[in-house]
What does this fold into?
Amino acid sequence: MILAPKNFRDLEYIVPRTFFEQKLVCQITTASSETMSYGRFGYEVSHSWMIWYYENEVFDAVVLVGGLWSLDLVWNKALQKVVEIHYKAWKIVASICAAPRNFLSWWIAKWKKITWANWDDNLESLAKKSDAIFEEKSVVVDWNIITASWPEAAEEFALAAIDKLK
It folds into this structure.
């Protein structure tokens, strides 16, 4: 699971992580630029390695946790490389809330159905510019891409990822 260094959405990390642990899904949590990440509501996560350490690794899935600071991840070339490698290898690439917007910038959502939080009423135009198909749903699964809209979709998002991992 990949976190922004600050202001990630606590719930979007805690809930999927808990579901993954219950289903015995092995996890690594990392961040873009720090060894400590701080959630918007005070949850703290330490991690041993930053994302660049894993840029040549291939896992079964890559999950980007949302929060407005996740939008700054779009400039992280190591993260972009990790996501693109997994996408091209038909591994799961998943993101929730604000984080799916990064998929648009990296062009992995081209001609794919996606969703994300519509806090600025800009979803359809952004999707159209990137040749993506916006669906107003809580969770959308299109091949190996899983996207979710709001923190309230965290459980459904986690279960969709677990289902794809089977």
Notes: The longest helix spans residues 10-22. The chain has one domain: 2-165. The domain at 2-165 is CATH 3.40.50.880 (Rossmann fold).
